[in-house]
Amino acid sequence: MLPDAQHYKELGLARLREQMPFYLDEEGVVLEHSAEYQAWGLQSLAMACRYLTLLHLTIPEDWRRKLERAERVLAALRRPDGTLPTFGDTDGASDDVGPLVCVFDAQGRCETLRHRATWVPEQSWGLYPVAGHAVWWDGLADWPNEKNLRQTVIQWSYFPAHAHKHADEMSVLMWASGQLWWTNVGYWPYEMAGRAETESWYGGNAPHLVTESAESPRSTSLLSFGWSDRLAVVDLERSGPGEHRARRQVVHIKPDVWLIVDHVRGDSTLKTITTWTTSPDVRLGQGRIPGSYVLAARRPPTRLRAFVFGSPAPTIEELEGSLSPFAGWYVLNGSPRPAPAIAIEQPARDSWSIVMWSLEDRQVDSTRSLTAPQVLSWKNPDEWSVELGGASTVREVRREQRRITLRDVRNGVIETLELTPAPDVTDQVAPISASFAKVQSAYPRFRDMLSRRTKVTLLLLVAFLGQEVLFSFIRRRHNAYHGTLRVFNLVGWIGVGCWLMFWFLKG
What we know:
By secondary structure, this protein is of the alpha+beta class. It is built from seven helices and 29 strands.
């Protein structure tokens, strides 16, 4: 019934077809660098498919396949309490029902949108090498009993010019026993001071240079990975800016121990920093062992012990709700809240650090006698060993090239895991980048000229007032020249106007 309805329908479909190759990849990941936009994008595309069915148009088979995979990805990210890991522009608030999704009938048509009855992850191991995410679950057999559930999320996604990107590649987020333990800042409101810092490295827990810009030229790749009943491993490396190289290995000894092994090399005059932020409802206190911390949740008796090792010895600072330096924040329901954080600083040349987390299902007395964990050896990122301290059994984790060995000091080897080299995703990423570049050239990005126009307006106003004062003086002292100068002045203003309109202020 609306004028040109057919034209606009075809235009909308054409633009959607252009966008799909770079918006949702074959793994089912919405390429917006954000867990919350995974949910938002899933519902938006489900609505589009429903419209296609109502218009009696065929939904492409690859779109249906992508949407089904996108649901599985979101299920892997969602926790039983409805929260999502806060990487990118993601709020820490809970969503009880999740997005509306599309159910396809036997003919491939989208039925009335509905909420899923449950969002239980289909598998414990989720690896998305094209998009740059890994999601691990422990205790899925007990879902939704939070006590035995653990979720670890590692992300290194970076598609330049795609929306909602934070400088957070190689961040690690950990949720366990119904409690958020380590996180990024999340979706900081645009209108509040601190948004720029949140989008930069300060908002995540990835290792980075102290002075590094959010737009620094860099690339991050998955080197290898491994998964077994006892171990989960991801090995990442970031190159850039310049000679800077950062390596991060995440080793999870199931179900309650994590090792974060970082190594950096590059300019000896620079420093690197990693900021670990916990939840606002967690109390962070120093443990009895030097370099150790005890994280206490509101719901006892769960506690998390954290240990920090490094060479050279790192400088560690505790921060909470700090704006300078920016650290110790978490966004919940659109409101930034102070949260405990520790910042680890070291030289940027051939430095390593190991952070160990140990979750305990009992009250932790930070003053009781514990066997201290220690680094037994460090040769390079591919050759190291760590002894895990504890109240009873002592275990050792050793890396030898692409082999991770878990050893009980008394009883010998528990398990050996051979790491799998990462797949080459070049052929998958190239068409995503090419399709984005094609659309980007067809629809030039809007240039926000408000600030420039405001400054030009003020300058023109000052120039106009100044010329009027000058012409008032000329009219009184040299009236014979006044008319001629006014003509030249008018021609000048026309020239300035053309220059502003067709060049300087052109959008």
